[in-house]
Amino acid sequence: MTMSLQNRSVVIFGGTSGIGLAAAKQAKEAGARVTVIGFDAAGAQRVANENGFSGWRTADVTKPDTIGVALVDIARVDHLVLLAGTFVAGKVLDADVTYLRRAFDERIWAAVHALRALGDRLAADGSVTFISGVLGDRPNAAGTAVLAAASAAMEAFARGLALELSPRRFNTVSPGTTDTPLLARTLGNGREAYVAALTEKLPLHRLGTADEVGAAVVFLMSNDLMNGETLHVDGGARLI
Ligand SMILES: NC(=O)c1ccc[n+]([C@@H]2O[C@H](COP(=O)([O-])OP(=O)(O)OC[C@H]3O[C@@H](n4cnc5c(N)ncnc54)[C@H](OP(=O)(O)O)[C@@H]3O)[C@@H](O)[C@H]2O)c1
Questions:
Q1: For the chain, which residues make up each domain, given as ranges?
Q2: Could you tell which of 21, 62, 83 is best to mutate to test the pocket of ligand 1, judged by most ligand atoms within 8 Å of the CB?
Q3: Which CATH number fits domain 9-233: 3.20.20.140, 3.40.50.300, 3.40.50.720, 3.40.630.30?
Q4: pLDDT tens, residue by residue, 162-193
Q5: Which residues form ligand 1's pocket by a CB distance below 6 Å?
Q6: Burial level of 35, CB count in 10 A (0-12/13-18/19+)?
Q7: Are 67 and 40 contacting, i.e. CB atoms less than 8 angstroms apart?
Q8: Which residues pair with 57 in a beta bridge?
Q9: How far apart are the first and last CA of the chain?
Q10: Which of 67, 170, 180, 213 is in Cβ range 3.0-4.6 Å of 161 for a Cys bridge?
Q11: Which of 217, 175, 223 is nearest to 26 (CA)?
């Protein structure tokens, strides 16, 4: 059954930009009370004001205490979305290990700390949505192995939690390369050439949009039968 988001409390880590912001806007459109959590306070406040979100918070998802502080005064969360993260790239034999660990800190460990901080305040009939990425299935270049592992781990973690924290539902959205501020920041001046080469190979010959991936996030939180699932929203990128 499709669960209405009307008046539901939706909290989105990473809801201040890109995919998370698109999901936040769509959840609000569906009637939810949305709280967005970002890293940058000025940006989070601006985005919340511009879009009429119910609240905004800041956290550094690599720092457990800040996750707890961000959630401390939220009485009940119906749908938790964990999308905060960066593109962690580096070769296993060369890159700084503390930096590489970030791929897991931003994803697995941030989720562990958010769930522990919320405890019973996460509604029993609610949901949690994670993000992974096409890399989890198909690491596509040297330097992506750790991020690929962290992405695949999120999908396995969601399946395990669907049993451990039942009847709450746990799902993962797996996007392909999506046109967001993260992509622009990561690629810098090389963006145009990278996108041209990639889109030539992709079955749809284009990148995904934040709105398309955000819609998948909202689908997973509002469809009451989706549980332990990974929803690929990649235009067929896994096929090449
Ligand atoms: N775009 C893609 O192609 C793609 C593909 C696969 C997976 N993903 C994953 O999807 C997620 C969202 O990506 P996006 O492309 O939408 O990126 P984005 O536009 O850069 O948004 C990232 C969001 O995460 C927040 N954030 C980043 N680091 C944080 C930290 N340490 N603590 C708290 N919040 C933090 C940002 O807050 P501020 O704005 O305040 O910094 C922002 O709200 C990421 O986990 C990314 O790895 C993206």
A1: 9-233
A2: 83
A3: 3.40.50.720
A4: 999 999 999 999 999 999 999 999 999 999 99
A5: 14, 16-20, 38-40, 43-44, 59-62, 83-87, 131, 133, 175, 177-178, 180-183
A6: buried
A7: no
A8: 37
A9: 34
A10: 170
A11: 217
**How long a stretch of residues is the chain?**
240
User: Running DSSP on this structure, what letter comes out for residue 233?
Assistant: E
Neighbour tally for 163: CB within 10 Å? 10
Tokens representing 200? 């030539």
Say how far apart CA 82 and CA 47 lie, in whole Å: 18
For residue 50, give the 3-state DSSP assignment: helix
223: its two tokens: 């469809």
Two structure tokens written together for 136: 């989890």
Summarize pLDDT for 9-63 with one digit per residue, the tens: 999 999 999 999 999 999 999 999 999 999 999 999 999 999 999 999 999 999 9
Q: 84 C-alpha vs ligand 1 centroid, how far in Å?
A: 5
Check residue 31 and give left, alpha or beta (phi > 0: left; psi -120 to 50: alpha): left
